[in-house]
Structures are given as C-alpha cells and as structure tokens.
Design brief:
Layout lengths: L9 E4 L2 E2 L12 E13 L6 E6 L8 E4 L3 E8 L8 E2 L20 E7 L5 E7 L11 E6 L13 E10 L23 H6 L9 E4 L8 E4 L4 E8 L5 E6 L4 E6 L2 E2 L4 E2 L2 E3 L4 E7 L6 E9 L6 E8 L19 H10 L26 E12 L2 E6 L2 E3 L6 H6 L7 E2 L15 E3 L1 E6 L3 E8 L5 E5 L4 E8 L17 E2 L1 E4 L3 E8 L4 E7 L2 H5 L3 E7 L35
Length: 565
Amino acid sequence: MSSRRSMGALAAVCIYMFVFASSARAEDPYRFFDWEVTTGNINPLGVQQQSILINGQFPGPEIDCQTNDNLIVNVHNRLSEPNGLQHRKNSWQDGVSGTNCPIPPGQNFTYQMQAKDQIGSFFYFPSLAFHKAAGGFGAIRIRSRPLIPVPFDPPAGEYTVLIGDWYKTSHKAWHCSYTNFITSRWILALQDMLDSGKQLPSPDGLLINGKGPNSASFTVEQGKKYRLRVSNVGLQSTLNLRIQDHNMTLVEVEGTHTVQNTYSSLDVHAGQSLSVLFTANRPPGVYQITVSTRFAKRALNSSAVLRYAGSSATISEPPPPAGLADDINFSLDQARSIRTNLTASGPRPNPQGSYHYGSINVTRTIRLANSAGRVAGKQRYAVNGVSFVEADTPLKLADYYRISDVFHLGGIPDAPPAGTAAALRSEAAVMDSDYRSFLEIVFENSEDSVQSWHLDGYSVFVVGMDKRAWSEQSRKGYNLVDAVSRCTVQVYPRAWTAVMVALDNVGMWNLRSEDWARRYQGQQFYLRVYTPSHSFRDELPIPSNALRCGRATNASGSSRTLSRY
C-alpha cells in the first residue's frame, strides 16, 4: 500500500514493509485487517461533502503493530472508480501508480507484508489520482519489541494526532439534490481544477483527527506523561503544533529516536510524522492543542481539546495565533536542532549511531530543482525541467516484463538545466541508479513556497539545509555525525536541503513532492535502483496475486531467472 482509476493503492509515509512469502519467521505474529473502502458524507467544516471511508471511518482505522509483525490487509474497493506501506526489497506493493495496478471497482486485493526492522509513527493514504483530498488516510503505529530498550520511560498513554489542511470542495465533481424540486448542478471540484490546468485556491480549514475546531478531544490525568504521535496528512500546508501552557519533548521522527530537545511549538511539514512527550503538569482544566499554517497565503488555525480528568471546564476562546508565521530563520534553526540520538536503540538492540554514514564515500551527486511552468497552456510542475506524466502501464511491471516505450530511462538529468527560462517537457521519466551506491541528493528551491519531498522505500540522512543557493562549499557545513534519518524533508523558500542515502533497496521507487497538487501536476519521478543479480536476497519475486493492467494485462510467467542467493 502506498505512506499514495480504480481504487488506487494505499500509500504509507514512510514505513518499509517486507513481504514475507518466503522469509517470515514463524515466531513473528500475524495481524489481519479487512478493509472496505466506500464513500460517505462527512461535514468537518460545516459543509456536507463526500469522503473516502475505510470500514465507515474517517480517518480510517489505525494499524497498531510491533516490529517484525506480519500484516495481512485485505482491501475491498466499493468505490465507483479504481483506487491503491512502503516495502523492504519489495516495490511490488508500494501502492503508487508506477508500481501497482489500481484495484478495480467491486474487487479486492490482499497486501501481505512484514514490518521488518521498523519502529515509529507513520500514516497511510490513497495515492492515486487526487483521492488523497477525499480522505482515506489513517495512522500507523509500530511499537518496539519488548526486549529492545526505548530511550524514555513508558508514558501513561499514547494518542494519535492526524493534522492537515482541508477543502470544503470535494476532490471530484458531485451531484446535489435539492428539496421540493428536482434539479442538479456539478461542482467544479479540486481534481477538475487541476485537470483544467488551474491552481488550487487556499485550503478552507484545518482538521485534527478528521474533525474541525475543538471537536477532537484528549483526556489526561494530572502529573502523568503522555505521547502524541503526530502526522501531517494534508495536501500542502506546513503546520505549527503547540499545546497551550505545556512544553513538548521530541523523541522520535519517522522511525528515528531523536535527541530529546524541548520545544514550545514544532513545525510539521506536509507528509512528515513525529512523536512528542508532554507532562500534564498544569492546574486541572481544559487546554488547547493548536495547529496553525506557516508560510501560507491564508492564515488558518484549529484546535483540539486537552482535558484534565475530572474537569468540567469548557473552551470559551478561539485558538491563539501562531506567531512567527513567516519566520523562516526560526523554522530553519528548529529543523537543524533535530538530530539522531546516537546511543538509543532503533528496531534492533544496536545503537542508532553504529551506522557511520559520514565516513562513506559519495559515489554520485544529484541536484534536484523544482520549477513551475505551463505545458500546452496548462499549469505544470517539474523536477529538473521534466514534468512527469503517468504511463499506460505501471513502470515496475513494464520493467519486469521488458515492455518497451513505457518510460524513458535516464529521462531525469542529474542537475537542473542551465538558465531559468528552459521550457518544461513532459514524459514518464525514470532515473537509473545502481544498487549499493551512496548518493548525495541536493534539493534546490528557487520558488517562494516551502517544498516537501518524499522518497519511497528509503530513509535519508538530512545533512544540511540553508538559505540561498547551494554550492560545493556548502558541504563544509554538513552534519556528518548525528543528522536525523527520515523519509520526508522540507526545503525552505529560495533555499536548499542536502541528504545522503545508501541505495540498499532494489526496486522502482517514487520520489515526489508532498504538495499533492504539485505532485499530481508533474513534480515527481521514479528512481530505479537496479542490480543485475536478480536474486531473492536483493529483491523479492513478483507477488502471485499481483494485478496486471495496461500493456501488462496479458503478461504471465517471469521474464527473468531469479536466484535465491
């Protein structure tokens, strides 16, 4: 499933699942999930609209599991259109359009996965078309195994906090019936706007766990400590999180235990997840957990209720403003302060700092610049001058069955084109790369908005970020000791962010903007991590239940001889 048309796949940000067909250990438990995906009416901002529901829920049910658990998720698509966790050695079930066929209406698909060597806080969502704007998202919680030490005492309780921007407009056109007379009208919906080449307006509001202002609530007992697992599941906005009159201690970012710094507020960019601890050490009463937009054209705020047990007080005032709404320096300094706890154990007992990424020789530097432009009169977005267009066949299937002319291998250059006025070109572009190479990737943002980037199948070390243009001299400021490892990184306006990543996961992996309109309109591509060995040791075989579509509809058997060693 993708952390992303038939019901497309469900994507996850950003766990690395491992299909266990031949490798799961007998002692690891199985967890079964049966999901029915439908549409239903919701009104979180006071306007009735259709949403994607899972088992009738918005947000969808939480996946609560433990490191190495085997997960079997049977997804039934009851939508009228097609619909789709990231995977270790297994991009076959990554759940994006470049790897998976959509689940046809009225049919089902069973994901078989193992949460191999993973901990942390994540979320899933529908990845195809613009379904993400309609809901279908939910939390993923992967707990450490009992014998693996965690660098903080067990909290008294844990709460999931899914935050995100939201539109009152549906993601697709919908039909309205009016009382006392028969009529109808088609609403220009979000996906229609994008398909017609327009830009989306600013969001209408912010949701917390699928609810509007002061509708979500959390109860705590005075003197006890709690964990909040926070994910920004929205379409585009950077959100600032704070708890009225309480400080937060950051303890985990997307599966990495962090240095335990204390903050009064935290920026959570689109697609990012984190965990904080806080102590209920204030006088009994009600307080607000507030989220506010940052770096946005329109300021939005929303709150949830934090209630001390036994208190009957009510919220009588609106959420306080964010403050420093456009202060890039504040946010940049905060981002640099988030570092890996080198002595803490991750999913295994060995310390997180035992992997010395800073001493590995870089084998390739890739500079990726986002840009905006028009193609055939319509708004498009691009990476290094290339705006991605969907192919008629999933790229992974085309690669496996050696179907020609589906994608352009090498279609994305390693650096942006010279000059600022280069015309955009559109194609199903794939960047080729070698298994076990070690990359330096520099994201360059010459625009005035915050960018958020995600790479499926991997976590990356965020070694540096700064304002102005990147140069080779920028490497002198890299953090080569305790950079945080995560899968979604932000790039500030007219700034850069540098990451390092070991390509140890064979497959076809989506590298995309987490601004979903930009991703939908072309700001993405696929990274093909290739090895000629064709061994089960490096990549698992195509699943026996893999859906086939496009030019792979009638493909059967294997085009390759795979070794088990």
